[in-house]
Amino acid sequence: MYSVKFDIITIFPNIFSGFTSESLLAKAQERRILSIKTHYLRDWTLDRHQTVDGKPYGGGPGLVMRVEPIFKAISDIRKKTKAKKSKTVLLSPRGKKFDQATAKKWAKLDQVILICGRYEGVDERVADYIADEVISVGDYVLNGGEVAAMVVIESVSRHLPGFMHDAESASKDDHAQYTKPEIFEPKKGTEWRVPKVLLSGNHGKIEEWRKGH
To answer: Fewer CB within 10 Å: N-end or C-end of the chain?
Structure first.
C-alpha cells in the first residue's frame, strides 16, 4: 500500500525518467512507500495532431494550453485511483509559494496530481475550476512545470514514513556543515579550518552555534 501516489500530467513525460529511477525515490518506489506515474497529456486529445494548445483570446504572443484535455485527464485519473484524500495542483509562477509546511501537509494525502504547464501558460479555467491549488516553487519563470513538479515530489517524499534512513534528517533546520579534514590547505600558507566549537564536544554550544549559521 503506497503512502502517496504522485500523478504527473505533462507533454514531456521522458523528462522524469532519470529523476524517478535514481537514488532515494527509486528505492522508495521499490519499497512501495510511494508511486510516481507520468501521464502523457496528448493521449486525451481528439484530433490527429494531438493538439494541446491554442492562440490566446484577446491576442498576445505564444500559445496557451487548452482546458479540455486537462479536464479529461484529471477526470480519468481520479476515476481510476479513487483516492480519498487527493489534491490536484497546477504548477504556475503565479501561484502560492510552496514551502516546508505545505510539503509536510501533502505527505498526509493519498494522492497528489500535478499539472505541468508549458508554452505561455495554461487556460485560467484550469486554475478556477479544476485545480485545488495553484503553486509556485519560486519567484522566477521556468520553461514548464516539470522541474517544479520534481521539487514538489522530492520535498513531499522526504516526510513520508520510511523514506529517509534518518527520520530526523527530513525535518531538521538547515545549517552550515563540516567534515574531514579538520584543516584544509588549498595552497601553501592558506588554511581553511573547521570552527573550534564543533570540535569542543559541548553540545549546548554546538546547538547555539548552529542556530546562527
So the answer is: N
Percent helix, strand and coil across the chain, each to the nearest 5 = 35, 25, 40
- DSSP one-letter code for 145: S
Q: Which residues of 179-201 are buried (b: 16+ CB within 10 A; e: fewer)?
A: eeeeeeeeeeeeeeeeeeebeee
Q: Is the pLDDT of residue 167 over 70?
A: no
**20: nearest Cα among 34, 9, 40:** 34
Q: Let me know if 120 is a catalytic residue.
A: yes
Catalytic-residue membership of 158: yes
Alpha-carbon span 154 to 138, nearest angstrom = 15
Q: Tell me the whole-structure pTM to 2 decimals.
A: 0.86
| The one catalytic residue among 68, 93, 133, 210 | 93
Asked if residue 37 lies in contact with residue 2, where contact means CB atoms within 8 angstroms, the answer is no
Q: 115 to each of 9, 27, 70, 175, how far by Cα in Å?
A: 5, 25, 8, 33
- Could you confirm whether 61 is annotated as catalytic? no
Q: What does the pLDDT look like over 179-208, one tens digit per residue?
A: 889 999 999 999 999 999 999 999 999 999
Catalytic residue among 68, 110, 120, 154: 120
In the set 66, 118, 146, 158, the catalytic residue is 158
Is position 22 annotated as part of the catalytic site? no
